[in-house]
TrEMBL record:
Listed CDD domains: BY-kinase (cd05387)
Protein name: AAA domain-containing protein
InterPro entries (alphabetical): Bact_polysacc_biosynth/exp, CobQ/CobB/MinD/ParA_Nub-bd_dom, P-loop_NTPase, Wzc-like_C
Organism: Shimia aestuarii
The entry's keywords: ATP-binding, Nucleotide-binding
Residues in CobQ/CobB/MinD/ParA nucleotide binding domain copies: 91-264
Biased composition (Basic and acidic residues): 1-29
GO molecular function, one term: protein tyrosine kinase activity
Annotated segments matching region Disordered: 1-34
A cellular component annotation (GO) from this entry: plasma membrane
Amino acid sequence: MEKLQAALDKARNSRRERTDPGVEVKPVAKETQPSGVDARWQALTSFDAKDADLIRHRVVTRHARKEATPFDILRTKALLQMRQNGWKRLAITSPMPQSGKTTTACNLALGLGRQRDLRAMLFDLDLRDPSVHAFFETQPPYLIGEMLTGAVSFEEQALRYGDNVAVSMSLHPETDPTRILLAEDTAEKLTSIQDAYEPDVMIYDLPSVLVNDDTRAFLKNADCALIVVRSDSTTYSQFEHCQREVAEQTNVLGVVLNAYRHDKRTT
Ligand SMILES: Nc1ncnc2c1ncn2[C@@H]1O[C@H](COP(=O)(O)OP(=O)(O)OP(=O)(O)O)[C@@H](O)[C@H]1O
Ligand SMILES: [Mg+2]
């Protein structure tokens, strides 16, 4: 019994020592300022787009709704495949113009943005005919070409939609797009952006493959590509030609059949 009492006293004394008021216990300072990657995202200038404007441009993924479902399925499938393969850079192209590339790219970007735990980036690399700004009805302060060639920083040029989508776009065409798309400096710039901002997905909205050399020049910078074909205008031989060209340079993630009407037979 005495032994037990002695042990209890010892434990009580040692507890008292640990909470001795003479020993100052400093509260751990709560970190309120974001640091590193979060701070870099917060430093991007934010912009918003009106839902009505987006919908007019067929960008429907800002909110979860019925019309967004096909793009949400595409987003989830693309994301899972990319994660499985460790891919981050997704090119979007098509055989011929006006197939729905930019529509698909914007819908994917905003659909990814609804996933709060993801970060997504959208680059308008259709340098001869940039149109992403028109989809968002937004005027970026600098051209994407100025950022890629180092005249301005990504932080100055890109705009942030919500907390987790960065959009790098242009108001005007570039005079020598192929040079920028082929340049080693462009590849290095994109790698440095990826390192600094750690996006889960970088979407590259590219021109069509069969109209000029721009997409061919750039595809080495993509981990994979989606080919958008328009059911009412793309021919099979155009698709085949495009797929061959893309597969020579990167992984074909899949093919999006755009503007297909389920009720075709009944109309
Ligand atoms: N499924 C669809 N149904 C009807 N119209 C569509 C559909 N997808 C896209 N469009 C419309 O087709 C036009 C071209 O779309 P978009 O700009 O996305 O194509 P693009 O392939 O990026 O064109 P470009 O080659 O000029 O860059 C736009 O007016 C767009 O709203
Ligand atoms: Mg386009």
